[in-house]
Amino acid sequence: MFKIGNKDMERVHINGVDRHFYINGIIEDEDDFVDLIDCLYQGKPNENIYIHLNTPGGRLDITMQLLNAIKASEATVVGIADGQVMSAGSIILFACPNISIMPYSYLMMHDGSEGLGGKMNENIKQAIFTQALLKKIYMDVYQPFFSVEEIEGILGGKDMWVSAEDIMQRVQNVVEQAEAVVEAPKRKRKGKNAEEQIQE
Known about the structure:
Shape: globular
CATH architecture: Alpha-Beta Complex
Order of helices and strands: EEEHEHEHEEHHEH
CATH topology: 2-enoyl-CoA Hydratase, Chain A, domain 1
Strand content: 25-35%
Number of strands: 8
Helix content: 40-55%
Radius of gyration: 20 Å
Structural class: alpha/beta
């Protein structure tokens, strides 16, 4: 069964439901993301939510709302790099518990930018607050795919461009490290059993 709407495609199968959402273009109108955010919050364990990203980035407040919904969702959430994934788009991608990288895609990460207006002292306070907020988000989301030094470089004003091949290698490294951590206790237990047998 297919249900095609303006923003998503739903596929129902015997094992559950797949829902596909497409973030194309600038992230700027909060109304465009209500369906996705609601779907994430209402997501069930037998549901898969795929977020396809092809975006130059956009508003931080909408991005934070998406991060909260992704974190809270009981569904299996998959972020898919499906073209250019820049700025806020890269934050959303790496916030997803599962990541898929299409071969013709790339990332760009950079420090935040604000179109500030108003009094100078207010602008300074806002810039300081936003910088601290971005640091928390970047450290939470970009690690362990990127090192602390790389993230600090981005926060310091360095634009970081990453190819699909580089992203896939970084993701693979994280997966292998996680598998090694799981395997280590098993090897330790086997060694202990062998020592006990020798003593016997």
